[in-house]
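The instructor's notes for this session suggest beginning with a concrete chain rather than abstract definitions. Hand out the sequence below and ask the class to guess, before any prediction is shown, which regions might be ordered.
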Amino acid sequence: MTAQQPNLVNLARQGDGKAIAALINRSLQPKGILAKVVFQDGYLKIMLEGETTPDQAVFVSYVQQGIVALDIPNLHTLQVFGRVKGTTKPDWTEVVPLQVETAIAQSETSVEPVETAIDINEDAIVSHLNQAIGSETITFSAELTGAILNITAKTDQLLEGDTFAKSIRESLFGLSLTGIESVQLYKQKTRSNARYKIKEFTLVQETSSIAEPEKTESVEPRTSIVNSAPQMRSSVTLVDSRPRRQSNKIAQFVPLAIIIIVFVFVSITRLLSVPPSAADLCRASSIEKQRCLLAVQVAGEQTIIDAKKDAIANTQQAEYQGLEAAKTLAFADAQIELEEKHEGNSKLLSSIKVTSSKSEEVFRGVSLVDVQIGDPKTPETIVFRKAVVLQHSKRGLRLLSDATIPNNWPTQAYTGTSETEKVSRSLKVHQIFIVLGGSIVFTSVGLFIANLLNLGIRIFSVQTLFRTAVVLGTVEATLLLILGRNWIFGIPFGSVALLITQMIVKDLKVDWEAGYRVVAAGVGVIIITRVLLNWMLFGLIFSIL
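After discussion, reveal the predicted structure:
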């Protein structure tokens, strides 16, 4: 093993792909990662495969330090891929331009730059990009228009605009493209003729994101695969020669956002879970206190408070309608309950009647109806009793809540709780979450799914995703105020909102050429996703409260 080791290192220094792969695998195979290496025309491509996707931030830096230490002649670009073992499509790719000192050390008098010399023509640029970044799932085409270079990436992958543009720009830095002032980057689906602009940038290199070679010229790299036992170490330090990805910046705020959301949720839940005092409410009632407390207990404190706001005084007709509605409801519930208790006793069921009913106005426009069911032959025997709380407003008569109470109430206390109150408080908490941005998040999820399924919606960055969700929600709210809500025209309505949003958000691309059915399907996915997530959120809040 010792005799073969220096030979393996020498082969790796000469750019032998198998030797490079063998050195890398000695360190990475114990971690469950296998490296495959191809070196051609100054481009070193390394594919990392694992049971799960290898961590991009860790392993790109890890591999880069080891490759730099080898000092391979004529190597100018390193491209690292990451994917799950057994798949053909990379989950991520990153291009790292390399400046190898041996390339310029061959001639001390040479003043040639490290950049690869290349004629400014489309074929040469396309060949360079396909070798540096291209794969089985992504190819490039290029077109020169004066001082503007138009590059089109043909792929069905979801591209993160900023990161992908940085990879292209870094790859072009390795070329001498004098005369080109700006680059316009487009994306085109493999089975589509339409292309969509992702980014535009200039070929001015950012000094802040590039390591200065003067500082490391005489210092031996910390991580080296050229020593007595050449292996790449598992502990690596991220270098500054890679561009900082936007996703890392966003990730820094995720823990803070989670803490804020949890804090707001707990605060709101505690605030709304403490109901107002029923005794305080009943001080303003003109009926007997016990009956008022029963009405509040059946309907719930918050429900009573809300009902009082738009209630109007009862009329004789409204009181009669309420009484009859309560009697019908009580009699139907009595039959169902007694049939379950006294199965087969048809004589008892046929003999029961409403033996007593009493309506009282607890508050202005809010009434309590006490309905008793029994046998007219023995009116003192009550077999079923129902309390019904009604509201009379300008919109008419409304059932607030009802409950089956003990037959001998108030001797036996009613101990039930109001489901209406729980629903009311849950709706309020749900509303607060929607105002705090829940609707935007749900719309974003719907947009992401529609984009993933290629349903006529093209989004190339996380920023565009959330910007589209915010604008789309605002446009929909505005249209609802103007036109009113009509669910029959939900998809056409959503399509119009999406068209207006496209005019505002320039980075959003809607493929109308694919046909209205495709776009309508995308809008349908957004609507369904939003409805499902809203119901799930409400169910979660309801279960907690």
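Then share the key points. The chain has 17 helices and 14 strands. The first strand starts at residue 33 and ends at 40.
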